[in-house]
Amino acid sequence: MNPVRVGICGLGTVGGGTFDVLTRNADEIARRAGRPIVIEQVGARRDNPDCDTSGVKVTRDIFDVARNPDIDVVVELIGGYDVARELVMTAIENGKHVVTANKALIAVHGNEIFRAAHAKGVIVAFEAAVAGGIPVIKSLREGLGGNRIQWLAGIINGTGNYILTHMRDEGRTFDDVLAEAQALGYAEADPTFDVEGIDAAHKLTILASIAFGLPLQFEHAYTEGIARITAEDVEQADNLGYTIKHLGITRRSDNGVELRVHPTLIPKERLLANVHGVKNAISVMGDAVGPTLYYGAGAGAEPTASAVVADLLDVARDITTAHHYRVPYLAFSGVNDEANALPILPMEEIVTAYYLRLLAVDRPGVLARVATILSEQGISIEAIIQKEATEGELVPIILMTHRTREQHMNEAIRQLESLADIAGPVTRIRVESLDEQE
Ligand code: HSE
Predict the structure, then answer these.
(1) Given 35, 257, 412, 437, which is the most exposed site by the fewest CB atoms within 10 A?
(2) Could you tell me the domains of the chain?
(3) pTM of this prediction?
(4) What is the mean pLDDT of the chain?
(5) How many A from CA of 319 to the centre of ligand 1?
(6) pLDDT digits over 299-327, tens only?
(7) Where are any strands of DSSP class E within 191-289?
């Protein structure tokens, strides 16, 4: 049978890994697809010294690949927003199927890209865009198709998890560990995307759309990074039985959908709390299946290539069998129909528990004033620890609260910070029990 002819655009970490996996496993991949999948052309601004492209046409102009009549599938691995969007739209206009690992592209331009692909009758596959090698999109879109998804929570940025893990275990500095993650090829070209939660928000946006059947709405995602987490917070969380993880959380309620990325205290016994280093994991709660967990390498050349090649196999099978009904890009049909519209909730409306750390003047009545402010906002305290004075007359107070609405906590923090007895800003980290009842 005729081979499926692939054009790879971008020969960096993931492009090189994809080239190697497709070449090395060519026989097995052909048996799975029922026909060979061959690399017809590579478009890359520069060579990858780890990648032997001899015998393959190489062009410096990636748009040559998108227009090449001998190519069936364009694999977009250049990353970024604008050029990638133009490349993918050009490929679609030219009737090519597209496989991409680009979460920023899908999260921000996905609605437009899917419309164009649908009109042209081509596939856009993006398993590698979320959690590298973990087949979480396929699991959520197909394997859990019988469920009403209630929530999902995940460690979906390997670099951030790598940094938090090594800072905690080895007492190393943030910059030192970040440099190592960059050298290992985990970090984004702009590592602020990793540490500020933007990369995770891209991925969470995609997961939420597939979980709940919504258009992609990255602009409504709340993001908070890990740069403000201190060694003291890590230690206090540990004393209280929690681990701090940078989580992406999306949850459906009657009013809408929560969509948020922020550092989060989770109970140490949760499996997610024990996901270390560059590994990713996503916990998904379905009404029928209950809790499920997807774990594996969330970044890196060959793990991400694993997902790219799986998408190529799907495309190859689809072309071969000429399906007239395909799995919808975002799992549900009619994601843009008003009847299906669920708003993304503003952050003030989310409901969660909180860890607070404040520095207070050590004199009678301070704790009572803190407790009064919280109680007037209807916030119930679960635990309170007052530490010995460390900074002159100031004592750290650690509070854990029960679940409350974010707007009440915002108001309580505003009032706490205006007390003469409280020094500096209040540290707030959200707390999720991730148990089956929520
Ligand atoms: N920079 C990303 C991460 C790469 O660290 O998870 C994979 O998307």
Answers:
(1) 437
(2) 4-133+301-339 (3.40.50.720), 136-297 (3.30.360.10), 351-431 (3.30.70.260)
(3) 0.90
(4) 93
(5) 30
(6) 889 999 999 999 999 999 988 876 666 77
(7) 222-223, 242-252, 257-267, 279-286
